[in-house]
Amino acid sequence: YGKNTIKFLRLHKEGKKHFVKEVEVCAHLRLTSPQEYLEGNNSLVIPTDTIKNIVLVLAKKNGIPSLEQFAIDICNHFMTTFCQVAYVKTYVQEVPWQRLHEDGVPHIHSFICVPDGIRFCEAEQCRNGPLIVFAGIKDLKLMKTTQSGFEGFYKNEHTTLPERHDRILCGELFCKWSYGECKDFDFDCIWKKIRECILEAFAGPPDCGEYSPSYQKTVNCIQMLVLSRVSQVQVIEVVLNNTFYNVVDMKNLGLSNDKEVLVPVEAPYGSCACTLGRK
Amino acid sequence: YGKNTIKFLRLHKEGKKHFVKEVEVCAHLRLTSPQEYLEGNNSLVIPTDTIKNIVLVLAKKNGIPSLEQFAIDICNHFMTTFCQVAYVKTYVQEVPWQRLHEDGVPHIHSFICVPDGIRFCEAEQCRNGPLIVFAGIKDLKLMKTTQSGFEGFYKNEHTTLPERHDRILCGELFCKWSYGECKDFDFDCIWKKIRECILEAFAGPPDCGEYSPSYQKTVNCIQMLVLSRVSQVQVIEVVLNNTFYNVVDMKNLGLSNDKEVLVPVEAPYGSCACTLGRK
Amino acid sequence: YGKNTIKFLRLHKEGKKHFVKEVEVCAHLRLTSPQEYLEGNNSLVIPTDTIKNIVLVLAKKNGIPSLEQFAIDICNHFMTTFCQVAYVKTYVQEVPWQRLHEDGVPHIHSFICVPDGIRFCEAEQCRNGPLIVFAGIKDLKLMKTTQSGFEGFYKNEHTTLPERHDRILCGELFCKWSYGECKDFDFDCIWKKIRECILEAFAGPPDCGEYSPSYQKTVNCIQMLVLSRVSQVQVIEVVLNNTFYNVVDMKNLGLSNDKEVLVPVEAPYGSCACTLGRK
Amino acid sequence: YGKNTIKFLRLHKEGKKHFVKEVEVCAHLRLTSPQEYLEGNNSLVIPTDTIKNIVLVLAKKNGIPSLEQFAIDICNHFMTTFCQVAYVKTYVQEVPWQRLHEDGVPHIHSFICVPDGIRFCEAEQCRNGPLIVFAGIKDLKLMKTTQSGFEGFYKNEHTTLPERHDRILCGELFCKWSYGECKDFDFDCIWKKIRECILEAFAGPPDCGEYSPSYQKTVNCIQMLVLSRVSQVQVIEVVLNNTFYNVVDMKNLGLSNDKEVLVPVEAPYGSCACTLGRK
Predict the structure, then answer these.
(1) Are B234 and B180 in contact (CB under 8 A)?
(2) DSSP states of B71-105 as a string?
(3) Domain ranges in chain D?
(4) Could you say which residues bind urate here (chains A, B, C, D) (predicted)?
(5) Contact call for residues B82 and B88 (beta carbons, < 8 A)
(6) Contacts of C274 (CB under 8 A, 6+ apart)
């Protein structure tokens, strides 16, 4: 198969107000015949340069109504235009430009980059198969400074980790979910709702939080809340890349340290992941 | 000289509410004698490990009231404790954790990382010299999609750039300023005010913006506004790393493109910088 | 499942001569029951910290005879020690330290890091299934400045790429292959032989090279040569991340440019990949 | 001032044999008047795009005889062509392509990237001042597994580091030196000689090494050897970014560990630097 990455910016005006979407598009294609590999016969090969042109032309003609719709448009174009394409997958990722505000007033043409979780989506289709749409968020860094522990784990002669009932839970989240038949979805609205679910399940109620007995359980809580609140989601995958913090032992410096000063532990570096679907 | 980098997290509670600061501290030391270099005599050398301990002990004892105060505390400690230190500089940079909000309600112990410009500061002192404090913001990515051009520049036989009066202005800002004698400054409040000045000077009024004839002039506007609004700032340095966008030529694809689809240009990559002080 | 990354260095002496291996080990585990996710029951969970200890203890006891043998040792340990483990995969990657030479004389205890392709391997096992071993090389950057073209590709109204019969072929290679039943393999020797095959297939004969009609065909040549020369390889996957170079058009600077000055093209960025096995 | 980065590849043939240099050039310019900053008057500004064209034209016309000569050529061009330029600095860095060998036979047109230390240089000139040339090597990672210690350092109540007489010394080297009047220098030859001095001073004799009492002393040894062996070097700066390794304590795992298994310590991360010139 072949893969191409294209970055570009789509600018759009309504009166004097500007709207901007900067995206990175990655298109994977697999052809019906591997003759370009086996025989060096390029007659069915769609050059990277042509794929780039198609993506830019679609952006020019249709705009980017939502990341998901744009990914669907690209898939459809390749499937309907090129009979030699057996499979197409398009990945679209957004540069997180947000409108700038001055004293609460939105600016008509200025933007600031706020990377507090990156939105992405995928559309995928095999010839004669259904078009499947995924969406997700990545690079979302979250921390809770209490209401987290890790106890009752398996122990043997290689165990040196003490049990802890009040540690810091910190990590980088990757979430990706699939939609079922996605007729007339408001993708932007659903995505925002899911992001809120993720934050709520991670943090718990604002006034007291909710105890997490492990990274794994927190992963599951996120999945359960999204599945229960957002009916359009069929399957959800969550990966939590953990950052561990150790309370610094200050005894030989003559000081106590009641979880006040902690250092991030670079290694071992862990992650846990789970994929959960509806029955 | 020697340099050390330490990352840690300082947690602080007021009742059930948690406050978190995660910082990266870098301490530069120069000793009065270079004997450890020339003779391999280590008797005056303060090991990296000791420096780490000192920074953590200070964080434990004093907390991190502000980045600047913490940098000052470290400088003072080294100058008063070690007579072999001829010069000390401490750099402190913040991991941009922000309190999480659910439906507008702040969470008591959960945080999200929002890297829309990283705050840092420096405190620097030579023995018998004044303590100088710098503060700054880096990795601040801004874009304005109109009200920017570049015309009337110098031309010769190597010039191929056309003049443009409506281009995209996009870049990554680095700003660093020095304070004068900093008695009783509210460093957090001043920093926020300066950040607002930077955004305002970059973007112009929310309803119409302000025309920028060059990256250089925008750099100067930022400096002028900060110096005029914030009396504590003595000198301000601004570096703007430019990202250029080219309007895609779609003529041979049979389409016009009225600044709707643009691609970022990786090379040449430019930056402009200027340092401006008060008379 | 869970995943952990550990970095460490294993030092070994024969007389006064030192041998060093620095590796990054990543262990993936899947348990027979997902109860830690669903119920927050940690009783079967093997903490990251324990996994780290096991890896370090195995390195201490057995050393690292080869990356592959070390990966196999870890797999075996987890399968035989923990009945709750349903699946284990270990990935081992080497930091490319090479013995330093002075005027051709090898140094007994000094090393230099030479990252001209990174060696890695994987061992993988499901409970009651066979242990499968993979090996590979990544981040191997190669270039040939002639004997490469791209012609006869598919064309339509979105095609703007000209045909070229003398372009630069440059890319970053990732190769990964699987071994069959690996009794008494000399993994180090086989790996070196495969690396030589890759370079030979990419470059062709030293005095004239061999024409490549596409990145895809070069990928296939590498696979064919490895499979024909190295009987232990069962399946080989090759990914070639292309770097395109454009000849700079210097006409409006009054100069011709006969493929003398070229600039790398950042976007579109492409890659091609293929997996090939024996019949 | 303004700064620009350009990446390109210069290809050159002698008969059927190809020679390739890929470089990154960064040009800093300061103009005689800051009017583009203060007044938005661009009439003296040399656009990034023009600078790019000049660098490419020089590469086409002169080739890249050595990095240093190319940097000198660019400086000279700007000083003689543009009277508004008050200061110019050019930095040139090489992509470390090496000719591929098959069974010891050099390939006529294939290359492999071997980043075991990156070569760079700088040429710098103020109007009416001398042209100064610097050269250097960076990202050179070296390790010695014995003949290194750290003892007799300054101790107080914050000291927790034990004295060690047999530790691992590992780091990333940055070296930069200046040449005096550089008439007819063979820059390639001198650079190779200095690289050999660095390796020799770091490692000591191949059969026994040489004891290093500190990172600082090793820095000084490198400087002393280069200054004594290479008369063209006037001043040499060395920065050594240390990677510390801790012997893993395996007592509570029931094992001794005689410097056999070590883990890299991410923080504190230190570096030491020194600049040394001739009397």
Answers:
(1) yes
(2) HHHHHHHHHHH-TTEEEEEEEEEEE-EEEEEETTE
(3) 2-129, 138-277
(4) 48-49, 150, 167, 216, 242
(5) no
(6) A1, A34, A37, C216, C219, C220, C223, C237, C238
Per CB-CB distance under 8 Å, the chain B contacts of A106 are 206
Q: How many CA atoms does the CB half-sphere of B28 hold within 13 Å? A: 13
- Chain A residues lying within 8 Å of C5, measured CB to CB: 267-270
Q: Which residues of chain D have pLDDT under 70?
A: 267-268
For the whole model, what pTM was predicted?
0.96
pLDDT number for residue B268? 67
The helix/strand/coil state of D143 is strand
- List the chains bordering chain B where 3 or more Cβ pairs fall under 8 Å: A, C, D
| Consecutive H or E run containing B191 | helix B187-203
Percent of chain A at pLDDT above 90?
Answer: 90
Q: Which two tokens stand for residue D175?
A: 């070296």
Q: Which among A3, A37, A269 has the least Cβ separation from residue C216?
A: A37
β-strand partners of B125: B88, B131
Nearest-5° Cα angle at B235, B234 to B241: 150
The per-residue pLDDT of chain B, averaged, comes to 95
Gap between the Cα atoms of D50 and D40, Å rounded:
19
Q: Do C112 and D56 touch (CB under 8 A)?
A: no
Asked if A245 contacts B9 with a C-beta cutoff of 8 angstroms, the reply is yes
Q: Nearest to residue D232, comparing CAs of D273, D189, D182?
A: D182
- Point out the residue among D160, D263, D267 whose CB comes nearest to the CB of A263: D267
CATH 1.10.10.10 fits D138-277, yes or no: no
Nearest CA among B122, B164, B165, B116 for reference residue B142? B116
- Say if residue C155 is exposed, middle or buried (CB neighbours under 10 Å; 0-12, 13-18, 19+): middle
CA distance C156 to chain A (A): 9
Give the CATH H-level superfamily of domain D2-129.
Urate Oxidase; (3.10.270.10)
